[in-house]
Sequence to fold (145 residues):
Amino acid sequence: MTDTAADHASARRATAALIRRYYDAFNSGNHAGMIACLTDDVIHDPNQGERRIGLDKFKAFNARMDHSYKEHLEGIAVMVSQDGTRASAEFNVHGTYLKGEEGLPPAKGQKYVLPAGTFFAIRDGKIARVTTYYNLTDWILQVSV
Fold:
């Protein structure tokens, strides 16, 4: 391998490990561990809602999510670009809807399983952007029982 190929392989491995650390922290409820994976100016694009920039806004989003949802991700498949600067993950969200949110159905402990995916941008060994997608219509149907 050339130095460039070796550098790319090393970057890909480091990025894959970073994404796995991020999701391991998520699944264990370790918000500090998640935050440790992010840049200070992280861009967070949730499936629904406005773009958030910075760790404080990311922390506030996580607090709101913890208040309304209990989620665990399963079947996480991580994919990394050749140079390690971008990554994605596909997974299934296994959740419980704990507390209703404005504009959404009332919560009464409904369970749901929802396929989802996240795209990441990586800078200096940390996650600089988190963009998550899932089918909101499917989720609403599942919790509207």
